[in-house]
Amino acid sequence: RYAQAQTSEPIKLGFECHRTGIGASYGRWYERVANAAVKIINDEGGINGRPVQLIVEDDGTDPKRGAEVVEKFATQHKVDAVFGTLFSHVVVGAAPRAGELKMPYLVVSEGTHVSSGSLNRYCFQPGITDVRSQVTSMAPWITKNLGKKVTMIFPDYAFGYDHRDNLPPAIKAQGGQVVEMIAVPPTETSFTRYLPRIPTDTDVLYHIMVGPAVLTFVTELGQFYGSQRPAIFGFIDSVEAVNLATPQLGFLDGTYFWEGMPRYAQKDQSQWDKLYRAAVGVDDNGASKADPKDISTYAHMYGVWETLFTIKQAMQSAGYAGPKDKAKFIEALEAIEKFDEGRDHPQGDKIFNGKNHQAYGHQNISKVNGARMDVVHRTSIEDGMYEVKADYTKMSL
Amino acid sequence: MAFGPFLLLATLEGLLQAAVLTLTALGLSLVFGVMRVVNVAHGEFYMLGAVFAWWVASMFGMHPAVGFFVALIVSPIIVGAIAFASERLILKRLNYDPESTIVATIGMLYIIQQTTLLTYGPDARPVPAPFYYRIQLPWFGYSGYNLFVIVAAIVMLVAVWFVLSRTRLGLIMRATQFDRETAQAFGIPIERVYAFVFAAGAMLAAIAAVLIVPIRQAHYLMGLDPLLLSFIVVILGGLGSLRGTVVAALLIGLSDGIISVFFSPTLAKMISTLLVALVLVFKPEGLFGAKAR
Amino acid sequence: MASVTLLRTKGLSRQFGGLKAVNDVNFAIREGEIRALIGPNGAGKTTFVSLLSGRIAPSAGSIEFLGNDITARPAHKRVRDGIAYTFQITSIYPMLSVFDNVALSAQSALQRSPGAKPAVIAAKAKEALEHVGLSDRLRDRAGTMSYGHQRLLEVAMGLALEPKLLILDEPTQGLSDGEIENFCRLVKEISRSATVLLIEHNMPVVMKLADTITVLNHGEILAEGSPENIRANAAVQAAYLGTG
Amino acid sequence: MTASRTMRVIALHVAVLAALFLVQFVLPDYHYLAMTRVMVLAIYAMGYNMLFGYTGLLSLGHAMFFAAGLYGAGMTAYYTDLGVPLAFLIGICCGALLSLIIGLVALRTTGVAFMIVTMMFGQVAYLTITYFTDYTRGEEGLTMPASARNFDFLGLHVDLTNAVLRYNLALALLAITLFVILILVRGPMGRVLIAIRENEPRTLMLGFDTFRTKLGALVVSGTISAMAGAAYGLLFAYIGASFASIQYSIEALLFTLLGGAGTVLGPLLGSILMFYMIDIASEYTAAYLLVTGVALVLLVLFFPKGILGTIRERWLPWLP
Amino acid sequence: MLEISDLDVYHGSSQTLKGMSLTLGKGEVLCLLGRNGAGKTTTLRAIMGLARAQRGSVRLDGAEISTLPAHEVPRRGIGYVPQGRRLFSELTVRENLEIGLMTRRSPRRVLDEALALFPRLQERLGQVSGTLSGGEQQMLATARALCIDPSVILLDEPTEGLMPSMIATIRDVIVTLRDHGKAIVLVEQRVEAVLSVADRVCFVENGRAQATMPVQDLRDDPSLLSRYVGVG
Ligand SMILES: Nc1ncnc2c1ncn2[C@@H]1O[C@H](COP(=O)(O)OP(=O)(O)OP(=O)(O)O)[C@@H](O)[C@H]1O
Ligand SMILES: Nc1ncnc2c1ncn2[C@@H]1O[C@H](COP(=O)(O)OP(=O)(O)OP(=O)(O)O)[C@@H](O)[C@H]1O
Ligand SMILES: [Mg+2]
Ligand SMILES: [Mg+2]
């Protein structure tokens, strides 16, 4: 199958995976997606006629280990590129080492660290839209449909800051107002006592939580409010990998969530979503086909898939033959302008900005209807555009 | 929300945390007090308690209450058995040397935690509460189950207090902690006492975990927080003082909740941690400790 | 020289809860003497010397050493001033070698004259061990020695401090008769360069060594005088000696 | 004691350093980078050992000293243009100052209370970093700007992205630390530290100011840890709050206990072992910490005093 | 009733007991004399199972007890007063005594008898034992051992640190116990104290019983003393 290649040496891709630590739920699914995508790539003849070999290293969701893992990929496994990292602090911790080791580092983290230009030329985020763009595109719909006075609850942690920094201006731009910002320390396991801080005149409660305590958060919100509650809008991160059919979550019925890619197969499900679901082994409810109790991180993990196909695309257009072509590979990535919806990009079409290395795509807003979610609105790409100041291409390679 | 209700809520939450913390800390205190073993794996016994509760509850899926109460009995027993075995296999052979046992219990921590990750997985999983009852107060709603946890913890506490201060077992345990050799010379089978104490300590943590798991979910990393807090409570309360443990747990439970009425959460945590640390600095023997050891 | 007062207490008291362990004690010791402090168990002897050494703080009263008020001086400074204390309950470094135990004392003594070489410390330590007859056990771990030998080590540590006032709290406890004899000789020798305050229950030793005896009872001084006087004192016989 | 013994000790340490110097010519790339990192962490552990191994004070908040160096140096390099050498010095000073303050307060306690109090101060330090997220970016952290990767020092151009330079810088710092500690623990202070560990009341009654000695040990220990932190931040270009978390305090404890508390080389050995144990095990299983756990338990069963500690006890009593 | 033969005990690589042998009959006081470090305490610890014998046997009424776990030994009726008292220092006097009672489920009567011997303790039942004076602690240690209602009592330097009148009390107690038919092993440093209570004397040297003789022999020939323990 790899007949036309000068060499059948595999292309090695380092997958930096949160197998353990607080990111483990995501890591597990990221790994499944990566395996599925690589299988397809290899079945179709690999990249430039060479098979792709996936090398997985666990970073323990820890920035120090993350940096070590990047070093290990670069110098021991001698991979051609590294991808996959989710948690912001791990990305930020490992990025400098990737830059210095001249190792292409493609993350799937949503964070604004890539798009804001604070990392380096070797860091890319082609598979998933950054939080700033997500938030910007949500704001108009929120203010128009749910209310103008917004209270936000977010983790006092990197991921939360992207929301904290970007939501208020976006809401304000729509004539709304963020009336209270409640930062919850990342170590918190119980939230009830933060809830009274929510002003009574709040129209919309905007919540975003990560980590294992998310379910507690939602449950306690339910206990607190009962049936009289403001409109609630959340980022799906709060219930990623969590079964919506859990009795405690009944309270979420009628609330809204941002989803990168809709967990429940929609009526107008695209053929690409169908194909992608089948390849990864996810059923129509977003759970593992093997175990319906094993819920995926569906709204995010597509980013891994799209990143892998982006790598393939760029390597092919660069005629990538080995590590000496890394610069060409980077430039090829930067030269990408858009992705079309299709098998390689099942979430939808995207614009890619080669200057700040960030992709911009459509976002979904879904409503919880009796333990499933249905998309009620899909934003346009333009909704999420903002002025890009960063320019990595000015940095040397 | 007005200040009063806010305070009420913070207090309720503080009581809940204090209740669970007291039970967990009591287990640690027992092990530390009697065996002089700093059991770093204590939090993992707590975690195991929650995980086994999930496991039992999902096996007895007929009614949440059935699953829960079976778990309340079965889970601590399994955890106790695991603790018992590890005491026999590891700690005993180390002769309870303080430094070695720290390393060994860190090792146990990893073993338990990672085995859970391999088998149970990285997700947080809920256990249904035995009953669902929401108390609607004029300002907010509150879970009736939370109040049940507080009461259950108090009942457990009284039971432990009775055993420690009113029974022979308690006397034996207190004697053992001062002088192992002399205790043996008076017919106390210290090996059995130690294994029992270690298992009992773990079981207390497991009970606390089963009580809390309908509110907090079982997760393989959930052990760290209770471990650290328990240590603080045990030392702050004064070693071996049951009353101290309760008071310290209340203090810890209530302080950052109430302080967070006035400050932002992270700042509140900073201030309350600092305050508690300073209490210890100026009263190193703990609030109710006899004297510094 | 013999008449110079080395240490004096005025109204020294210490209470434990309601118990007056040491009660209004006025006490003075002259330079160069061997003073014995005796009294029933629980009379407050250990408490009294703990006050002198600064291990515990008095509830009232003052302590004067070489004319200076040292009541508020921390314990370790008193040691440097020259008040050394050997514990009634053996307190050594069980995991360290016998030599290191004593070397620590020697090092402390030499803090007063800085710039001491390790060789000097070693020499002083060995000399002190020689005195108590442990010089053949330098390398042994202190904790593995028998109780009696640990007591001797304790004394050696006191010696190596080169104190002006050496307080010995029941030093012959646990020593066999043979060792006691050596010990008496040792104390005599020490007394040539230092003042000794000796707490003892072993009456023959007290009678043989002491220049003056102070008897403590219920935290108060019951009697003070020469060995002969004390032996003849009816109150002392009743309170302490039993028969006499 | 004797001159020959001193020679033997010096020879051993010089040999270890020489070996570390020489292996750089044969180490494969990855291990080259890894060893650089391990050496910096070993410095941290050695600082820790100064307090725990020799003085017997178990601190669970040492990450705060590491973080003081990390942030002191890192924030200086990130926000000012004072230059890297000055930033490094500032990092060390931050650690020294912090350890002095913490020492004055925390040393009023002993034993487990000390352990808990330091842990809580450590938590406060961690929370402080996350509280000032506007400057620190909290958990996410900051990466060093390009200006902090290249600088001129004494007329030399230093490029911190150069792996060879980094390795040898780390080694130099390690060597300095090693000899400072060696001199301290073999000198009169070392003996007093050990005496405090073994029996503090007695040491006080031997006329030593135990509080001041402990404070000294804590400051030395904190400063060394801060130096490791400062070096870490500057060499690897990242500072983040997770370095101040309790896990990193426990890590130092673990390195020390594994290698042998109260031995000069123990923490170095412990750091190397622990790193490779995790690194190798993680290639085979996601549950590499399970392997680590089993290894720890086995180690402690057969080497109860840590590796070097047990070797010293059984075979080489002269080991410092 | 107690028979020890050929005990070897090691501490690490050094041998502390080298073939120690003793016998003790009912109602007899056997006194161990010897220099510091001779192995007297170790002998008692070996009887109690606290020091493990590599070789040799300890028989109580003919039954082997050296292989029992340490906590079984007191349950067979051997009471131990350790050197240095070793009380449960944070427990009260009463609790210390209760620990003794617990061992053999002894009746209350035993406690009353023990307290009758030491009226001083009666007054201080509620005090934390660590704060007792040295002499009081020694009484408590002895009383605690009596609480297990032993048939054999091992006393390791019970008069250490006691005032003369108290030494006399302890001596009287030992005599009383003997008269009650208890067998007693007494380790003592003070020869005069020994002479007045012992039936037989055993000189311990270098980990073995060098010579055992009726106390009368010692009274008759004080030079024996200097021969075995170096006292003139
Ligand atoms: N920390 C303490 N708390 C309470 N009481 C104490 C404390 N220390 C000593 N005592 C009491 O003070 C009294 C005097 O004790 P001290 O140890 O001074 O006696 P002593 O004369 O040395 O007796 P001995 O000859 O038995 O050693 C005793 O009754 C003792 O119980
Ligand atoms: N735990 C131990 N480790 C090593 N050696 C020990 C230990 N215990 C006792 N020894 C050694 O055994 C020997 C006998 O000690 P033992 O305590 O039996 O003497 P003893 O006759 O009771 O002396 P004393 O009259 O001083 O109490 C001593 O030389 C001592 O060094
Ligand atoms: Mg006394
Ligand atoms: Mg003895």
TrEMBL record, chain B:
GO terms for cellular component: plasma membrane. InterPro entries: ABC_transp_permease (IPR001851), BCAA_transport_permease (IPR052157). The keyword Metal-binding does not apply. It comes from the Bacteria. Keywords: Amino-acid transport, Cell membrane, Membrane, Transmembrane, Transmembrane helix, Transport. GO terms for biological process: amino acid transport. It is a multi-pass membrane protein. Its main location: membrane. Belongs to the binding-protein-dependent transport system permease family. LivHM subfamily. This is Amino acid/amide ABC transporter membrane protein 1 (HAAT family). It comes from Neorhizobium alkalisoli.
From TrEMBL, chain C:
The keyword Oxidoreductase does not apply. It holds the Pfam family BCA_ABC_TP_C. One of its GO terms (cellular component) is plasma membrane. Coiled coil: none annotated. Residues 7-243 form the ABC transporter domain. One of its GO terms (molecular function) is ATP hydrolysis activity. InterPro entries: AAA+_ATPase, ABC_AA/LPS_Transport, ABC_transporter-like_ATP-bd, BCA_ABC_TP_C, P-loop_NTPase. Gene3D superfamilies: P-loop containing nucleotide triphosphate hydrolases. Keywords: ATP-binding, Nucleotide-binding, Transport. CDD domains: ABC_Mj1267_LivG_branched (cd03219). PANTHER family: ABC TRANSPORTER ATP-BINDING PROTEIN (PTHR45772:SF3), CONSERVED COMPONENT OF ABC TRANSPORTER FOR NATURAL AMINO ACIDS-RELATED (PTHR45772). This is Amino acid/amide ABC transporter ATP-binding protein 1 (HAAT family). The lineage of its organism: Bacteria, Pseudomonadati, Pseudomonadota, Alphaproteobacteria, Hyphomicrobiales.
UniProtKB/TrEMBL annotation, chain D:
It is found in: Cell membrane. InterPro entries: ABC_transp_permease, LivM-like. It is a multi-pass membrane protein. Its main location: membrane. Coiled coil: none annotated. Keywords: Cell membrane, Membrane, Transmembrane, Transmembrane helix. This is Amino acid/amide ABC transporter membrane protein 2 (HAAT family). The keyword Transmembrane applies. GO terms for cellular component: plasma membrane. The chain crosses the membrane at residues 7-26, 32-51, 63-80, 86-105, 112-132, 169-194, 215-240, 252-276, 288-311. One of its GO terms (molecular function) is branched-chain amino acid transmembrane transporter activity. CDD domains: TM_PBP1_LivM_like. The keyword Membrane applies.
TrEMBL record, chain E:
One of its GO terms (biological process) is L-amino acid transport. Pfam families: ABC_tran. GO terms for molecular function: ATP binding; ATP hydrolysis activity; branched-chain amino acid transmembrane transporter activity. InterPro entries: AAA+_ATPase, ABC_transporter-like_ATP-bd, BCAA_Transport_ATP-bd_LivF, P-loop_NTPase. CDD domains: ABC_TM1139_LivF_branched. The keyword Nucleotide-binding applies. Residues 2-231 form the ABC transporter domain. Keywords: Amino-acid transport, ATP-binding, Nucleotide-binding, Transport. Signal peptide: none annotated. It comes from the Bacteria. Belongs to the ABC transporter superfamily. This is Amino acid/amide ABC transporter ATP-binding protein 2 (HAAT family). It comes from Neorhizobium alkalisoli. The lineage of its organism: Bacteria, Pseudomonadati, Pseudomonadota, Alphaproteobacteria, Hyphomicrobiales.
